[in-house]
## 1
Amino acid sequence: MSKRKSKSTYRNNLKARSEEARTVRKIVLIIILSILLIFIIGGYSGYTYIKQALQPVDPDSNEEVKVEIPLGSSSSSIGSILEKKGIIKDGRIFRFYTKFKNQFGFQAGKYNFTKSMTLDEIIASLKTGKIVKDALFKVTIPEGKSIDEIAEIFADKTKIKKAEFLKVVNDKAFIDKLMEKYPAILTKDIKNKEIRTPLEGYLFAATYNFYDEKYTVKSIVEMMLEKTSEVVGPYLDQLKEKDISIHEAITLASLVEKEAKTEDQRRKIAGIFYNRLDEGMKLQTDPTVLYALGKHKDKVLLSDLKIKSPYNTYEIEGLPVGPIANFSESSLEAIIKPEQSDYLYFLHDAEGNIHYAKTHEEHLKLKQQYIK
């Protein structure tokens, strides 16, 4: 009997030790996974922070800020001075960046910088001792412009010809390189064969400063895509939550941009577009007809609405195949946070006001009242 008890006790002890070992292994595994997760999150956060710190503080700012660099200043002290003046986002990143790029020989003096300058531009000024960093010229691209219109603006303001600009933005090899460089915003959707111009809608509306004559169409396009990436980047997680692809978002934002002028109008119209999509209705927005026609008209005719095109939202279901113009950040925000309403229709009167309706009957009455 005592032997049986001894064997039973041994088995129980062995079982207990085995269970204890399994528990320990589970705890160790959880700890290891937790540590790895912390490293991954920390690494991604660090990468994001550094990437943002390398960008200009305010790309649209032309205000000059006076900065004095004392004699014998190190890259660390220069970084601190620039950070305090609001010229760069982080002095430590400036110090690490200059070491990584092997940049040195900064000159003391009084400088005029702007918050729109890149780190490379700031470093170039500090090395050459160029006191004032003025743009040779500026080009302003308004919101709601197509690539064809953008090409005309650059042809008017620079030495670049419109045909040259359009040739480059439609070059397949160049587009492929841009997709590799900007994978977060340029997806395979832009290579749809039905799309008129792959980069349509992706060249952001802003004022661009040019500091020398060594510009090309490619450098201009990349500068504009950098701006798009900077503006769109903070909204990518919200777009994922709404289950909207970046291409769909920019397409819808371009429609909102063409239909509305104020923030309030944009949120209302974005909400109406979502309502129509939810109801299975066609979007039926006139700017897509004009884009399909390829020309501007003061008034869209009934015959125009029948044009066969993957852009014509009077003919197709859902969104057009791609954007019809560039967009403002306000329009992007509107499609992420649209105004909730029961409206399904809207129209513009001669004075630029927008009138909304819940039913087709109400919409027809508004037409009789405001459309002459």
## 2
Amino acid sequence: MSDFRLLPDLARRDVGGAVVSANDEAFATRENLITPGPAVFDPSTFGPKGKVYDGWETRRRREPGHDEAVVRLGAPGVVRGIVVDTAWFTGNYPPEAAVDGLAGDTWVPLVARSPIKGDTENAFDVQCDDRITHVRLRIFPDGGVARLRVHGVAKPDPALLAALGSVDLAAIENGGRVTACSNLFYSSPQNLLLPGPARSMGEGWETARRRDDGNDWVELALAGPAVVRVAELDTSWFLHNAPGSASLQGRLSDASPWEPLLPRTPLEPDTRHRFVLPGAGPVTQVRMDVFPDGGMARLRLHGSFVPQA
């Protein structure tokens, strides 16, 4: 993927992230930094502390220094990009920001102190291969940030996965990720791999209506080489726009041919479908085709790693 923003956001609240500390949140609470979805703005909302912002905002500094907030990633992993989103902050955004990551017990730089713009998704590529568990956002000297997005690939504890045995091989928290898809008109396909059930149609993956003879699809990289034994295709909340049918294929590498895992199978709307798969060989990639288009809430691929994984 050329755009790191297509990778999962490891810090989102619905992945398990949390803002564990902030030195100041006088105007707007720190927890807003990791709220899923874009920040919203209502010009009419004022509270006891002034204008209500959907973000994190600190007071005006009257002495040297900077403000900072620390986020525990919901899925520790390798960070490939950071977005410091200052949406709706126009006269009160910080002119500069920096981001560090906690690798073990050491803070390492992810984004050097850099200029940022107001009301903008300020995107930064990250060149660091360490496993990061927390990130620290520093703003200079003060101001407001709407969202902090930490895009990357989860790197779970191998001992935990081994102890669990059968796991969801596609889950973001276990290292699964979407690598390609045909259409993301309404929502990101990474939503398919989020923890827990979808709470609305907006928390799934939905494509535009097709007006041709083709179909939509999504490709995944699993957490590692594994045998997939049960597939769960969940169309919850999609009442009149679920796919009519779906199929699954798997392969071991980019050079390997796609092999069938689940033949094209009819689907019901607003339903959690579970399919026991035949004993196919190990795969590292899975492709789901939906016919012809529509929405899916979650995709679970339960199985176990092969010994070399």
## 3
Amino acid sequence: MAKQSISFTPPNDEWLKSQVDNQEYSSKSELVNDLIRLAGKQEAEID
């Protein structure tokens, strides 16, 4: 898996942390990957 370094604004970082803290996801990386998959699905549906 490719590694990337990205930065988040403080509000977005807090939201990501809250999702992990609520055990919705095991890590911020898992959450970001899921968001990217969802965006790809939506884009495919629009096309």
## 4
Amino acid sequence: MKKMIVLMVSFIFIVTIPVQGATGLSVQDAMNEPNGTDVTLEGYIVGVPTAVDHVQQSDFTSNYALALADDQEETQIDDMIFVKLDSEYRSEYGLADNPDNKGELVQVDGTRNPYFSHEGVENVSSMTWEDDGASDCGDGDASTDGYYDSADGLSGGELKQTLHNLIDDHTELSYSQVWDALRNTDEDPGNSNNVILLYSGNSLSKYENGGYVDEWNREHVWAKSHGDFGTSRGPGTDIHHLRPTDVSVNSARGNLDFDDGGAPFSEAPGTYYDSDSWEPRDDVKGDVARMVFYMAVRYEGDSGELDLEVADYAGTNGPNLGKLDTLKEWHENDPVDAFERNRNDIIFNDYQGNRNPFIDHPEYVEQIW
């Protein structure tokens, strides 16, 4: 009987020998695998390979292949692996049709073989989107290495206070540092030399910034007169609500609250305004709402700071900004997208060290307000 037990233990040991983890190989590790090996790897989409020595990183013309790297900002082709996309993967993953996929993390199952005579993967059998520690397309299930663990199961004022405690302590930029930060956070995914302007959606050179007509400047989405915080460190330089906008569009918005309706504003198609409110284009309504909600949670009046609050009406004054019901509707109708998630990651990793909880967990809006 003892001999039979030994044999059974030996068998169990053999069949449970560890295999490649579900999270996959890094791009660098996959590149070192021999040709003909079946691999599972994870990498960031950084471009479209069109030759052994050329990868398009903007103005994409093909859905037939992807370049993956371990770094979202990788530009060195030697540090990329080329993935050939068969027809069933092109509509969802190809960059010509989906330029916002650039910077997203994917997992690929396939065979390690050269593509364009470069380290590559062919015969792809599976591709899936991966969570890189930010959010998962706004489904509310993502977290960042336990970042939100303390908020589990909370709601109302208790949730708001807990989120405030999570995002309260962070690096504060100077107002001049904001210029360079916005060049990175709001980079045009299709043209790395440009930034996307919030209200107009136009793509403009990163260095056409200043105070002249047709340049871009630093828009305070939570208007700085709503709390009179100016451009001082703290709310005045918090890049979670600072965005590039056309100078004249910025001036027209001024310190208006956010609400639906009004007359069209010609310099920003899809934008409307009246005497007390501003309605941005549909593609960024949710972005605006989530920035406003962030500010109302980040600045709660402790440590001598302002207490910013979202009001349930337009035409506010003091440290208030409206209109709550409209902002909640915008948040619901314009879900979190890849641009917002990437922006949140850059701010967290490279600048402030804190996150916008409403990008990572959209459900928090209804749980608080």
